[in-house]
Amino acid sequence: MSANDQKQKPALDGFWHNGNFFAWSPPVTKPPPARIPSRLVVAAILHDPTKEATQSTTNAPEKPIAAEVHPPRPATKTAVTTPAPNQQPQQTNEPKPGANTFVSHNGHTFAWAPPVTKCQQDRATNSQPSPSIPPTPEHSFSHNGHSYAWAPSVTTRQPEHQSKSDTSMNAFSHNGHSFAWASSETKRQSDSTTKAPVQAPMSLSTQFGEARKTMEELGELGQLLERSQARLERTKTGILESLAGSSRAGIVQPDPLPLPPPRNSPPRPFRDFQDELAEARRLAVASITRNQQHIRNRITNEDLYDELRHLRTVTSRLVGERLHPPSNPRYQIAQQTPEPLPSNATTEPPKDLPSRYSFANKTDKPQGDVPSRYSFTADPVANPKSVVKGQGHKGHYRFSLLTDKLVRFEWSEDGGFEDRASTTAFFRSFPTPEFKVNDNKDKLEIVTQYFHLTYDKNEFSSDGLTVKAGNDVWHYDGKSYGDLGGTARTLDRADGRIPLEPGVLSCKAYAVLDDSASMLFEDGWIATRKPGRKDGYLFAYHGDHKAAIKDFYRLSGGQPLLPRWALGNWWSRYHAYSDKEYLALMKRFTAEKIPLNVAVIDMDWHKVNIPSKYGSGWTGYSWNPDLFPLPENFLSNLHDMGLKVAVNDHPADGIRAFEDQYKLVAKALGHDTSKEEPIRFDCTDKKFLDAYFDVLKTNLEDEGIDFWWIDWQQGNRSRIPGVDPLWVLNHYHYLTSRRNVKTTATPITFSRYAGAGSHRYPIGFSGDTLITWASLHFQPEFTATASNIGYGWWSHDIGGHYAGVRSNELTARWVQFGCFSPILRLHSEKSQWNSKEPWLYEPEARKVMTDYLQLRYRLIPFLYTMNVRACYESEPLMQPMYWNHKDEEAYTVPNQYYFGPDLIVAPITTPNNSSTLMGSVRAWLPDSGRRYIDIRHPSLIYDGGRYVDIHRPLSEIPVFAKEGTIIPLDTAKSAGRHKHGSTRPQAITIQLVVGVDAYFELVEEPTGAVPAAKVDRPDPSTLVRTPIRWDQKEGILTIGPEVNGRGERREWTVELVGCTEGVNKDVVEDDDDDDDLPMVTGNPASDLQNFNRFRERLLRLRERFRNAPRPSPSWPHRERERERQQPHYSHITTVYLGALAFGGINPDNNNNNNNNNNNLNQDKGQEFKLGKDLQLDVVDIHLRLHEMLYRCEMEYPMKEVIYNL
Questions:
Q1: How many CB atoms lie within 10 A of CB 265?
Q2: Model pTM?
Q3: What is the DSSP letter of 581?
Q4: What are phi and psi of 1037, to 5 degrees?
Q5: What mean pLDDT do residues 772-790 have?
Q6: What is the DSSP annotation of 779-833?
Q7: Please, which pLDDT band fits residue 150 given cuts at 50, 70 and 90?
């Protein structure tokens, strides 16, 4: 082979496309400096300076869009024009492709190059022109799975093809030539001997013109194509104007691409084209990178969005992504079967092509104030003064007295003991308690005020190690013990009650937590124990459950602080949403005035339907382009609505070759990609975890993912015995999430329970729940009992996930329980019958669901304060009744629980009674010396110290508050028009249950920045605190002063629940005429004061107008009026206090109203006189029975039920 032949050989590694020859282009060896958003690539492509430079030239070529308009199928009935016999094919007037013409074919990038023919070789040798060679029967290609060869006419085909019954129909015109069906062979014939003349690709306008002619017989599709062309031009014009505006603002414009060669220029060697292609890519990448911080072209118009969705094929040609066929049928003019590569094409895909993800192999290290994921606070070594150790007859022993009620016991044969942190115990350094030791040759005794330990100095056994606590004696058995239960790893496939793992609470005087098999941490990384060693903790708290839990938190580490937004409503569904469908759903929720805070996208966000050679689509990290063509734009729109976004992650299958970031992760790990071997998930490989977090997930988080839903379901085994993958995922996901606190406010993860100590990594996902009454009935007990092991933030599938039956009543009751549970996350499977949109249910259930979703939003001020209480005071939000009462009855109501310090919730978890048409629950009200009122049904007052059978309609759930309770609520029911999310409320409503003195401190997040290393537990002195006091005797409500706040004004309202008599409603009086306009004096400070006073008068007038009785309310007030006419509001007195600021740095603090009914003191806050010694209303039992009887007669005939009362 000659040197000249070798030089021309690269041009042969290609294929023919639309009459043009495309050769494989060399890889771009230098990666781009940063990830390139897809929308900016589209903008750079549409900005074509060459077109502006050649506007005066009529033959200036336009950039072709590969695969934009497909040729018609050969089986269509469209008339085919063929040349006459022996007539040369007509030559097209379309311009030839230039150096910038290239396409992606079957995952490979090809660039246009002149074909190497014999005539061209002779011309290169003799420097003489040679005429163009027309097509011959040797020029064949594959189309829709068939081979076609050029023929002078349809009637002059080869005889061997006439046996086909459909040969007369399998002929068509392609680029001015007539082609006939040749054979069923799918492989193209070789192009190495004779080449067809190089045909210039059709420009965009010509493609639309020819397509228009072809589609005229199809009616409206032709018009649709014209509209598509117009939208394309409008899109291009709009983006060019945006770029021009950026230029005027001082933003660097993209560098012009090289001009294409003139039409009459001779073919150039492929190596010249190769250099231009690389230069064009470099210029495009550089210009886009310079503009990516300044251009943010969000497409919200539906037409433009469709156009950019279709233009992703153009984007793919420049950045080396795979071509994705448009899923919208509007653009599928003629579906084609992908053609195989020619035999002489390169089989290895191009390497290191530009990607929209970063190539950087980042390493985990502190960035600013964000610590490394391998850095966390722990103090695992016990105080030496608290340790009793020695060598026994067999092996060695060590006892660590952490408190006088908590002891750690260890035994090892080799004398080694663990001082490393375990998943259960991070902090073992406690102050030394008082204890006594009696040590002799065969016996060791350790005595404290609360337990007596006896040990025979042999290997631990049931007879050799005992502990007496009170009247109970524990014998060592190597197991955990806590008969009040803890929680479980999952509720998957659970239909009702399931066994629970032990907690640290017990009906006996002791509980035991075995820690012999837990995973360890060493220098921030995982470690394992030496087999045979024994390790455990004994809690001897004699029924003092709260003290036991607080010491467990001291040992293991407390619950971290959650962000405010996590306490609102979550939406989740296992359904293949598209971006438009999901955004439309979120807008529908705002239209229905149903507030959401979190949007959870299940596994269909990534590619699911993958080639079978890669396995299942269970694991994925590449956006599904058919559903989410522009993921950054989609996530940005969700953020603009005020939503946080989580996506599902099943990490078990690792990173496979079809993933967008497969090569990036492989590069970070040094993984060979030539055989497309998967990168196995290995939680025990630190290098893998670094690539998993710092390459794979960082790039996705940069697109807008806020946090991850870790859905590990593959058990507790890994490559190293003793290492549970779920522990590794939970621990390092939570610590890594500290890098995103500018968006999430605090670290957060969403995963399954791994064991004792999992409370450090909220929030918990309880698994796929069956849609049955038995599942609902068990969830309140399951959630409250989890507090026995410190796990306070469970998130359930509210409404159930799958199976079961569709029930309006069941779903409504489930949402009621969700409102008074740690996290309210609506969830369901793909079935349309199980979806949880409230508007899909019957009117009564729809209203109940909507009301309680709005109530959950209003409860966020209360919930955030309880969140702070759980973090700093070791008090979980939900607590079993026996935590606060030692009565035997407290252990008999497992479904009843405390929700905060003062609310008792008894959810209804059974169907309505067929006679009363009401749901019922048997509740126990403890004898606290105070009366109780149901704040959701305030017409009844209850005495404590007894069981009560509660009957409620579907609209109500029993929530009891004792006298002297304060509950702060957000006055608004949602974030506002077209918005989701929850911020610091602008209006506060205080629900007050009078009868005794009351106190509540409203706590809100810090107003200043908190270092990322401390956001999970910021300094409590930085939190904003507003005390609220009620003086029962004097009838004075005091609010403030606000501590650490900014002194911002908020509207304050108080609701006296169950109190309608003796209330002074005019606590805010006018000291000026309400009709006076604010006086303008010219002094800014004085004018501002007058304006604020005038504004407050208007607000008071508005509230009085709302509360005034009107026979026929106008439309804006009908909804509020209907609410106040309901029984719930008929037993509540509402008093508007005004727009007020309590302390802080607001200069208007001294300008609040000071009249004879309220007074502001910067040290004591502002006082409001509501009425002296107010009491709950006295219930007229006879009137109540008559009301019930009347309702029974009107609604059902079973009035005997009422008569029997």
A1: 10
A2: 0.70
A3: H
A4: -100, 125
A5: 98
A6: HHHHHHHGGGGT---EE--BT-SBSS---HHHHHHHHHHHHTSSBEEE---S-TT
A7: low
Q: How far apart are CA 788 and CA 480, in angstroms?
A: 13
* Span 416-425, average pLDDT: 97
Inform me whether the pLDDT recorded for 612 exceeds 90.
Answer: yes
Residue listed under structure tokens 């980042």: 362
State how far the Cα of 537 lies from the Cα of 542, in Å rounded to an integer.
15
**How far apart, in whole angstroms, are the C-alpha atoms of residue 1052 and residue 1140?**
7
Name 910's Cβ contacts closer than 8 Å, sequence gap at least 6.
773, 777, 919, 920, 921
Q: Do 292 and 35 meet the contact criterion of CB atoms below 8 Å apart?
A: no
Task: Count CA atoms closer than 13 A to 970's CA, side-chain side.
Answer: 26
840 token code pair:
């899909």
For 854, phi then psi, to 5°, come to -70, -40
What is the crossing angle of helices 270-291 and 38-46, to 10°? 120
Q: Please choose, from the candidates 1003, 742, 1021, the residue with its C-alpha nearest in 3D space to the C-alpha of residue 867.
A: 1003
| Amino acid letter, 309 | R
State the Cα–Cα distance between residues 1093 and 1077, nearest whole angstrom: 10
Whether the per-residue pLDDT at 349 is higher than 70: the answer is no
For residue 868, pLDDT over 90 is answered with yes
Strand, helix or coil at 612? helix
The token pair at 893 is 């109501």
Residues in the chain: 1205
d(CA 684, CA 666): 17
Cβ atoms 380, 420 nearer than 8 A: yes
| Burial of 180: CB neighbours in 10 Å, binned 0-12, 13-18, 19+ | buried
Helical axes 579-591 vs 631-640, angle rounded to 10°: 10
Distances (CA, A) of 663 to 353, 514, 628, 696: 10, 44, 22, 10
**Is 70 exceeded by the pLDDT of residue 1170?**
yes
Is 649:711 a contact under the CB 8 Å cutoff? yes
Residue 248: strand, helix, or coil: helix
Distances (CA, A) of 111 to 105, 325, 1134: 10, 20, 75
**β-strand 764-765 against 794-795: which pairing, if any?**
parallel
Tokens of 278: 């690389």
DSSP per-residue string spanning 701-720: HHHT--EEEE---S-S--SS
The whole-angstrom separation of Cα 734 and Cα 748 is 6
pLDDT digits (tens, 9 = 90+) for 552-573: 999 999 999 999 999 999 999 9
Question: Mean of the per-residue pLDDT values for the chain?
Answer: 77
Tokens of 1125: 């006419």
pLDDT of residue 1010: 83
First to last CA, the chain: 109
Q: What is the mean pLDDT of residues 214-235?
A: 59
- Which 3 state secondary structure label does DSSP give 250? coil
Using DSSP bridges, classify how beta strands 534-539 and 406-412 pair: parallel, antiparallel or unpaired.
Answer: antiparallel
Better pLDDT: 1154 or 1122: 1122
Q: In the predicted model, is pLDDT for residue 143 greater than 60? A: no
* DSSP class of 59: T
Phi, psi of 123 (to 5 degrees): -65, -35
**Percent of the chain residues topping a pLDDT of 70:** 61
Q: 1023 and 1005 in contact (C-beta within 8 Å)?
A: yes
Return the percentage of the chain with pLDDT > 90, whole number: 54
- pLDDT bin (cut points 50, 70, 90) of residue 245 is low
The stretch 1132-1155 carries a mean pLDDT of 65
Q: Give which of 264, 205, 692, 731 is closest to 518, Cα–Cα.
A: 731
Predicted pLDDT at 627: 97
Please choose, from the candidates 291, 283, 290, 332, the residue with its C-alpha nearest in 3D space to the C-alpha of residue 310.
Answer: 332
Name every residue whose Cβ is closer than 8 Å to that of residue 1050 and which is 6 or more positions away in sequence.
985, 986, 987, 988, 1139, 1140, 1141
- Residues in contact with 335: Cβ distance below 8 Å, sequence separation at least 6, in sequence order: 70
